[in-house]
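Your task
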Amino acid sequence: MSDDAPAMFQGTIHGLRTVPTRGVVQVTVECKIEDQAKVAKIAIHGAWVAVALLKSPPEESMKAKGKRTWHELSSAEQAGITANDPVFWKYFGSADEHDAAIRIRKFCGVLSRAELNTQETAKQRWEELHSKFTAWKLAG
């Protein structure tokens, strides 16, 4: 790659957080270690970059590692992961993981997260809650 050629690499989004004091969103991207030189070429503080969703996300690489995408997880698994998120605790007014889990079950009208996989109304309530939480995070 010549010095004037654009540095491009493929990666996956692994983090998103808002920085309200600066009015920005930070995105964490993971890529292959072999692409480190390409990343270093553009990883200059303040450099403008572009991010685009690829038509064919690297789902195959996730499956090879035994990882599933968010949408491949059951509603119960999603709720368990979300209950562990301190940002969700703030959003939902929870004190900790245990409190968040209780509040999720109460909001969805179930006694066990497993019921989110079997009761359609509960699943819809979970999806609504998670969508609102995601929108809240993105809004900062």
Notes: The longest strand covers residues 11-19. Residues 105 and 111 are 6 Å apart (CA to CA). The chain has two domains: 11-64, 73-139.
